[in-house]
Amino acid sequence: MTQKVYDSPAAALDGLLFDGMTIMSGGFGLSGNPESLIPEVRASGVKNLTVISNNAGADGFGLWMLLETRQVKKMIASYVGENKLFEQQYLSGELELELNPQGTLAERIRAGGAGIAAFYTKTGVGTVVAEGKPVEEFEGQLYVRETWLRADVAIVKAWKADTAGNLVYRRTARNFNPNMATAGKVTVAEVEEIVPVGSLDPEAIHTPGIYVDRIIKSTINEKKIEKLTERKREAA
């Protein structure tokens, strides 16, 4: 079996990055972001990137780091709110944006991993989302055609991996990461814990190791909270 475990985030990305490439970056909001790998993409200096992600990070965190250094040419995303840097770059024309309904984005990524070149959905019909795309009628309803999404490299974050690359995610981190892990030509996973083969319950594995090429133990696990809401304690 090919050795999949690498010593560091930098080593895991070595030889994979180039100008003009497409990167998928996992995460949902601030949960499940590949926190250890994104800084290494930044440090590499690659530019003119197309980045596919649910979001573009938040001030000082996640993909915001690549926006700050102007390494991203285009974002394909579904949620870009509360990111002032993103807003500034988009409104000034520095940054291209392909905005997707969230379910459509997830399905386009899943389709890329499954080898399905296109599919039809009702979501977005009659809106700017459907502009320039084929629309067809099925059983009296209009559907817009959406195409798959694939990437040169997918960077994802999981909770655990075994040395064969089988991945287990925790809670919200399971939203986009599993689909992205299947849709990259090369998939690099950062995980909080690496265990020997056979340690994971086969029924609990979310991403089979066949999809994962390189693994590193994460060096950053901040687990930020996007909006902290606390309930006041009731008086005793």
Give the DSSP E fraction (strand runs of 2 or more residues).
Answer: 25-35%
CATH fold descriptor? Glutaconate Coenzyme A-transferase
Query: Number of DSSP helices?
Result: 6
Report the end-to-end length measured between terminal Cα atoms.
60 Å
The unreliable regions are none
Q: Please name the fourth-level CATH homologous superfamily.
A: Glutaconate Coenzyme A-transferase
Largest sheet: 8 strands, mixed
User: What would you report as the Rg, rounded to the nearest angstrom?
Assistant: 19 Å
State the shape: globular
- Helix content class: 10-25%
CATH architecture assignment: 3-Layer(aba) Sandwich
Number of strands: 11
Q: How many structural domains are formed by the residues? A: 1
How would you characterize this protein structure?
By secondary structure, the chain is α/β, with parallel strands linked by helices. The chain has a single domain (about 10-115, about 150-215), classed as Glutaconate Coenzyme A-transferase (3-Layer(aba) Sandwich), CATH 3.40.1080.10. The chain is about 20% helix and about 25% strand. The chain is built from 6 helices and 11 strands. It has helices spanning about 10-15, 40-45, 65-70, 85-90, 100-115, 175-185, and strands at about 20-25, 50, 70-75, 95-100, 120, 135-140, 140-145, 150-160, 165-170, 185-195, 215. Strands 1, 2, 3, 4, 8, 9, 10 and 11 form an 8-stranded mixed beta sheet that branches. Helix 5 packs parallel to helix 6 (about 175-185). The longest helix has 13 residues, at about 100-115. The radius of gyration is 19 Å and the shape is globular. The termini are far apart. The mean pLDDT is about 90.
